[in-house]
Amino acid sequence: MLNRVVLLGRLTKDPELRYTPNGTAVVTFTLAVDRRMTNQQGERETDFLPIVVWSKLAELCAQYLKKGQQAAVEGRIQVRNYENKEGRRVYVTEIIADNVQFLGGRQGQSSDESYSSGFERSAGFDGGHSRDSFDDNPFANDQRPIDISDDDLPF
């Protein structure tokens, strides 16, 4: 099974930092992500996705991310439910982030920083602090098909 999501969008407001009773940091924010396709009026629709970040990465997000700033988030989709005060079952879908890259900020700020949780480091990824940006991707913003033979595919 695979549950991975990668998002690129802008924060709709400053992150909200809280701590659990045992002292673990948790930050929440909403990421506005434009859809690729336009609607009938030629406008792009936007999805507003709730992001949850835990521990040290949460504290870094609270310190460095601000409303309007662009960020890339990698994580997993989680659906949880609870019973509200009226006795109704409420379902919540959110993204649990384990890697956040702080991209170019508002009004000419330029801060491409990447931070990961311990999951990324333990999984063998380049966790921690990285200066890589999406500009290094040779396929970024290129809508042409990739010329590759079936013999080159591993599946």
Automatic annotation (TrEMBL):
UniProt cross-references to InterPro entries, sorted A to Z: NA-bd_OB-fold, Primosome_PriB/ssb, ssDNA-bd
Positions of region (Disordered): 105-155
Complex formation: Homotetramer.
UniProt motif Important for interaction with partner proteins: location: 150-155
Coiled-coil regions, chain positions: none
Task of the protein: Plays an important role in DNA replication, recombination and repair. Binds to ssDNA and to an array of partner proteins to recruit them to their sites of action during DNA metabolism.
Composition-biased stretches (Polar residues): 108-119
Gene Ontology biological process terms, A to Z: DNA recombination; DNA repair; DNA replication
Entry-linked Gene3D superfamilies: Nucleic acid-binding proteins (2.40.50.140)
GO molecular function terms listed in the Swiss-Prot or TrEMBL record: single-stranded DNA binding
PANTHER family linked: SINGLE-STRANDED DNA-BINDING PROTEIN (PTHR10302:SF27)
Cellular component terms per the entry's GO annotation: nucleoid
Transmembrane among keywords: no
Protein known as: Single-stranded DNA-binding protein
